[in-house]
Amino acid sequence: MVMSGGLAIETRSHFKTSTIYVVLPVGSAFEKQAGITSILLEHLERDTRQMDESHFADYLDGHGMELSFSPGRTAAFFKLRVPADETKAAISLAKEVFFEQDFDEDQHSTIVQQEIAYIHQIKSSPENILKNYLKWKASYPDAVIAQHPSGSPESLQEISVDDVENHHNWSIQHRPTVVMVGPEFDTQERKLLEDFHESFGTRKTSLSPSPPKIQLNSVEHPPSMDSSNLYMGVNLRSKPPVPESHAQTLYRMIIGGGLSTRLFREIREVRNLSYAPSLSSVSFPAGGFLTASMDLIPESLEEALEVTLKGLNSVIFDRLEEAEVRRALHMAQSSFSFYTDTSSYLARFIAGRLGYDLSYDIENIKKGLVESATGDWQSELEELWIPENLSFCSTSNGEFSKMWKEKAEVYF
């Protein structure tokens, strides 16, 4: 149940673990210094004032705890999963991690070098370059963090430990979404979680966030790399989910929900254009993307681009076979069932729904999917199909911008 704004506690008697999941709205789109959020999260998951890095790792292992942070464009995510009888200790540790942090100069230097190594790893592979470019540069070309949430080697070198501490103080000014899921919780555990939630927003700082620039452009100039194959990708931007509407869910399932979906089948099984086309979606509070990416021989690029654009377009505007919609509905309903398998899955699912002020009652969601599937859900998607919502890039040295525009114009 939702306890108060941004706080929810749910119980499932079959769970063996408890999970605390925190969504803090301080992603890379709001940074003054590109990459500082990633560095901050690395600090938070390594130690506290009371425990150095070695002691902290021993504490987690000794109590069977699993802790992780991950950065995103508009939010940072914290997960702490523990055995059910360690719930009180977990809440105390979460509060210590967020509010009793030790920012050590030597550790900071190590973290910066590790983040730089990670960026170089991305640059070492044409496929990773393409995926990174599609997700960030091609999607938000004018944003401060156009390259990646982790910034660039040059920007990371300029971030001091004092900068990170100031960014931390600004971050915990924000009131997060906090979800706790487990088999059962007593009154004391509930009160501890409420106190943890209320601790945010109590520190003052002079820092203020930069507004994110949410703009999608059709561009094609990623870095070129030597490769026997080239990699191609197409983004279609989505919008924030709307209560009681499941049109975008059904669309994603038909396009890329499994091995039998139309793009995978057409690209791999029918035309043999790519062995492993990747079809994925990513969500932000301001919307998200459906991304199709694949490896190709250069001669196949034009055909693959045409097939991808036609597939994205046809699911919105063409009449669909009843069996295809029914299969998409089944896959969507099944995907929601996975969230009840473990406390961490359910906590993450609830936090994501709360972030959009959506209900997280899974049975009602399944009923809503049935209603959407039998209604005119395709018409809800027509507003997405505009040139500004599409972007394309490839790792080839060829002149593909003209071809991209010609192919895209056919469908508008």
What's the short story on this structure?
The chain has helices at residues 36-44, 53-62, 87-99, 105-123, 126-137, 153-157, 161-171, 187-198, 247-256, 262-270, 301-317, 322-337, 343-355, 362-373, 401-409, and strands at 2-4, 7-11, 17-24, 66-71, 76-83, 177-182, 230-238, 278-284, 287-296, 390-394.
Structure description:
- This protein has helices at 36-44, 53-62, 87-99, 105-123, 126-137, 153-157, 161-171, 187-198, 247-256, 262-270, 301-317, 322-337, 343-355, 362-373, 401-409, and strands at 2-4, 7-11, 17-24, 66-71, 76-83, 177-182, 230-238, 278-284, 287-296, 390-394.
- Helices cover 43% and strands 16% of the residues.
- The strands form two sheets. The protein has a six-stranded mixed β-sheet, with helices on both faces.
- α1 crosses α4 and α3 runs parallel beside α8 (187-198).
- The chain folds into two domains: 2-198, Metalloenzyme, LuxS/M16 peptidase-like (Cytochrome Bc1 Complex, Chain A, domain 1), CATH 3.30.830.10; 230-409, Cytochrome Bc1 Complex, Chain A, domain 1 (2-Layer Sandwich).
- The protein is built from 15 helices and ten strands.
